[in-house]
Fold this sequence. Notes:
The complex is a heterotrimer. Chain B is of the alpha/beta class. Chain B is built from eight helices and 15 strands. Chain B starts with 7 loop residues before the first strand and ends with a helix. By secondary structure, chain C is an alpha/beta fold. The longest helix of chain C is centred in the first third of the chain and has 19 residues, at 75-93. Chain C is globular and about 70 Å long. Chains in contact: A-B, A-C. The structure holds flavin-adenine dinucleotide, iron/sulfur cluster (SF4) and FE2/S2 (inorganic) cluster (FES).
Amino acid sequence: MLYFLPEDLLNKLLINLQQKWQVFVPLLQTGGDILLEELPEKGKYREDCLNRLSPGSKAVNAQTIIPPKEVFFPQSEVMFKYSSDSQNPDQLKIDSLKDQAQKTNKPGPRLLFGIKPCDFHALKITDNFFKNGFEDFYYLNKSGNSMAIVFGCPTPPEPLSCFCSSTETGPMLNKNSGHKFDVQFIAEEDGYIVETGSEKGEKFISDNSAFFKEPSDMEPLEKRAELIKSNALKNIKLSVPFNSAVESMRNKDSGSAAGGAGSSEVENTKDLYKSIAGRCIYCGACLYVCPTCTCFNVYDNSSLRCGTSAITGGERVRVWDGCVFSGYTREASGHNPRAKADMRAARRYEHKLKYDVPVYGRSSCVGCGRCLTACPVDTGMSVFIRGITENNEK
Amino acid sequence: MKNEYIPHLAEIVSVRKETHDTKTYRLVFRDSGLAGSFDYKQGQFVQVSVLGVGEAPISITSSPSRKGFLELTLRAAGRVTSAICRLHTGDSVYIRGPYGNFFPFKELKGRDILFIAGGIGLAPVRSLINLVFDNRDAFGHITILYGAKTPQEICFKNELIKWEGIRDTSVFTTVDKPDGTWKGHTGVVTSLYDKANINSKNSTAVLCGPPVMIKFAAKELLQRGFCRPDIIVTLERYMKCGIGKCGHCNIGGLYVCTDGPVFTWDQVVRFPENEHVF
Amino acid sequence: MARTLTTCIYCGCGCGLYLESDGSRIISTVPSRNHPVSRGSLCVKGWNSFEFINSRERLTEPLIRRNGKLVSATWEQAVGLIAEKFLSYKNRYGSDSLAFLTSAKATNEENYLMMKLARAVFGTNNIDHCARLCHASTVAGLAATMGSGAMTNSVDDFDKADCFLVTGSDTTGQHPLIGSRIIKSVLDRKAKLLLFDPRKIRLSKYAHLHAQIRGGTDAAWINGLMHVIIRDGLAADKYISERTEGYEDLAKVVKRYPPEYVEEVTGVPESILVEAAHIYAETEKAMIVFAMGITQHTTGVNNVKSLANLAMLTAHAGFPAAGVNPLRGQNNVQGACDVGGLPSVYSGYQKAGDPAVRSKFKKAWGVDFLPDKTGLTVTEIFAHACMGNIKGIYIVGENPALSDPDLNHLKKCLKNTDFLVVQDLFLTETAQYADVVLPASSFAEKDGTFTSTERRVQRIRKAMEPAASSVPDWKIVCSIAKAAGYNGMEYNDPSEIMDEIASVTPIYGGITYSRLDPFGLQWPCPDKEHPGTPYLHKGKFTRGKGLFLPVEYIPSVEQPDDDYPFLMTTGRTYWHFHTGTMTRRTSVLDREIPENFVELNPEDAKTLDVKTGSMVCVTSRRGSIEVKAKVTDRVSAGSVFIPFHFKESAANLLTIREVDPEAKIPEFKVCAVKIEKV
Ligand SMILES: Cc1cc2nc3c(=O)[nH]c(=O)nc-3n(C[C@H](O)[C@H](O)[C@H](O)COP(=O)(O)OP(=O)(O)OC[C@H]3O[C@@H](n4cnc5c(N)ncnc54)[C@H](O)[C@@H]3O)c2cc1C
Ligand code: SF4
Ligand code: FES
């Protein structure tokens, strides 16, 4: 179904949504950058935030530097705390989990308002990842009952490094293309065409019916939406042969005997990994900013009795980590299966383009282009895809 | 929802020194409910925490057939393992698990089994060895080949002797660097193959040890007619979560912590980093 | 979830990033895409720069030593004790019995207040900071030749230059976001990289040519380059006659450095020297880039003068993408110098010996007396403490007990100091010697400004309330001034301090907080309308004419010999920063390099019968450490390299106290050691 939200109701809608949801919105920051933040519950700061999101400003159309995974999987988070036992000060014990949960559990399910179609696809992948097999308490505790209000991209956000038409994850969500979503906003001059894609989406509209107009005649709205969508597709600046890259990755393996090592295609790919590794300065940015990268490290942050090494308490923390770091796979013996930088480059690209395909039914690259934007030496998925497909043509 | 990352208090009820840097701990969960319900299989591992220091994956070395406790053998290799090795009877650690897949058991019934282990690699294998011995009649000939760097670094000394005494079982031990008193075999484990007269017929090999050992041991087994699915290895990788989430142990599309640590050689040769894993 | 735009705490690149606070912890770091230096990227240290802030090992309360042990105290007690002690030393032994070490990690405002405290409140010029240990030679050498001791160009120029002469800078490791621009320029724009470095550092992979010089022979090969340039008629005659003076003296000296001789001294083959000279001289946009490998020598000032000579000889100064570019190591070492944390100058490099300068500051600060005698440097301060002349030392945000040379001697000095105050985030190796320890707030917990290597004065902004009962350095300094009876140091917030700095400091004259949003201004910025200065010496040198100051090659003080056959250099790794106080409390960084190592050439390793991972004992005439060997051809035979991050086996136990006579910078880069297998 299609609805219409007049522009001047957007902020009021957001405030209304706060009754039920913890609302996360992309906000314009001091440096002109866009980042997701939780909309404060009240006060002057909320006013300020709403101003920084005003429609038509970059806030809604631009890309957040960090993808929405951070709302459920922040860069660092405390897993649990421990302290010394009151009876036996030398013995540390885990603090009551109930007390800890009360402190960390915020009220209300989370609503991601204004995320991009590519990021929406990525969230489905991370949701799946953290749910499959053992459940990840920390992610699921925050993502449970959450919902995303997607804002389609009428024009690609700066710095034009995204390629969602190639990955078929944008620039707008389309039911016809099999995209499953709840609600999508399509910006127009004086408001938004609001498209629902599920019952949950319909319920969202009816829960907030005071804001959404249901036109008596659907047709003009449908036509307008179609036009914006097709223009959006034309506006995409960067396109890469994504599918043929995925196809060619399927058939080869960087190291395994089973993958047909020695063939010229495999050798070319190896050279490509080497050249990427040759530029890499190991900053980790491509992994940190990737909407589907989920690796983490775990460490204990402990307090010491003044001037001694006696631990008096602390917290177990998890923090983003990544396969580009050599220590990420180094075993205690010193042996390191991925000691070589090109093996680590291979790991990243093969994970996204090859190994995740059978697991999620699609590559876990959603074409957001953030890896290229964040790379200090200008490498990224689109560069790799060009490289590997050019190689194949040779 | 269960929070799988929260470990549980377990008390050290006894400590046995294996070598200068390796000890075997017997543990019992403080929570009696957990003590009863904690069920594991041969070859699985647990995540052991020393609060304030960190967590490390450690194989369960006791056999699931011997209930009521859990045994772990640790070598002081780094921060966590060294911290554990400083603990005594009566101290406690935190444990979660068991994790990972396990050695086949039923499938091996009726077959000969060849165990090949190096150093502390005997720890995970010991779980299966004792399980097999607790069901001795179900299996054919058992051969145990064990290699250590020096005579001082041999783990489970008493048990090796005990196993030797079990019927239809042969045990061979070798060291890389002998000392004056060493009367046994000298050389790498593969140098025991002839002596042990190993035979691939109706036989499964189970391997655990340092990467180089596994590489050469498997290679020679293949030369001696073992087929890939009949060679079973258990692997070590750097691990943080043990439950398929942190990503550290990932090889290709597999997670060593959940799809492993036990793999057949057939799987191993398909690893993308195959040439580097060993 | 609230985000605050701020500036990275680690290196001098000065990347812009957002910190995110959840109210009690900083939970993430995000690069700013619009920031002119970071442009959406950060290095691994920057990406993880939030973690140490949350460390549970942070100091939580002031500590006072009682009966030999540090015990908790209130702020009133600690500050009162400091004021009382310092005043009593001043009265009994004179102002110069006190010394102040300010911090390249602290803000400009805080550094300015530290010098005000030293000079106005306690009447001494004994104020210095770790710039002494990194770029003191640069400040002296460039000021003498060109008139301004800072990087002449901007970071953006790295995208425009066609030739980089990099020497003594492991740029990808120490200034990653400048290193990455060099990599891109070489690979994508075919710029030429001329590398003069004793080690096969990461950049050598991209170098057009790599001259693996013998450590400590810099003046010789630089003179050699100039010899070839003059010999082959490549000198910029017009530029030389119009914009410089002293050319004849230079020509006379470098005449004595023909390539054959240079090859003998430095190990650089003649063909490489000649090729480098031609490429550098013939490329219009050519930048010299240097760091500690040039400055940390007893001949540091000479080395810097030499590089300036080279640039002026070929008209490579005073233009965009051509200049002499010292890369400043710390986030705010440039600023700490700019605002006067030095024994000889006030803010803006105004000379302490100049009566006009002093009377200006007397008026501004409302005091009758300001000292005229040049104060003591870091190395001298400790030496005098050892002799008993210095009674009280106040150290802010520095860890000399790991970062200064010849630690055994230094620790003796620290022990000998009557009254030592250390203000830090952590109980550092230095703080363990203190009589009073003050818990400072981190960069995330306060407002202020840092000045990056490209002279960019930019804001840091408070993202979180101070941890535990820590207090921002500027407030602590003010409270000490107040307790000592001085009323001229009361500010509501750091912007007022900046206004004061601007009013007394010509190069910062146009700087106010409102003008610094979002990404700062590059000094000189003399007035409120001035847009800032992307490159120096445009049209004419700051000192008027550029002055050629020829230098002769003088060998390092301690050469390898039969007893100590290896030449040791020290330095850093990409993963850790300085003494590791912050990076070793950051899980991913600590995981990458958890322990110390010594780099050994395969040839030497063979002779010594050691492999990667074997323990070796490295001994100099001053000390001895045990450390794991790392066999690599990054170092040439006869040389070894040890990073100085690790307290367990501190490289500086081995280094030498000998200093440059002018800049007083110690020779961290060369000493002689022997190595034994253990
Ligand atoms: C499935 C599985 C089962 C395992 N089973 C067992 C088992 O049964 N028994 C067993 O002992 N191990 C076992 N391991 C290995 C064990 O998990 C590792 O040894 C352990 O994780 C190391 O953790 P750590 O914190 O002690 O080491 P870390 O501190 O993480 O050490 C890692 C590295 O840090 C360096 N390091 C840090 N501190 C020191 C120091 N003090 N001295 C020297 N080097 C130092 C070393 O270079 C070392 O390589 C198993 C591993 C896996 C994956
Ligand atoms: S390059 Fe320097 S300033 Fe930039 S993120 Fe790294 S340490 Fe911080
Ligand atoms: S150990 Fe975390 S994924 Fe396997």
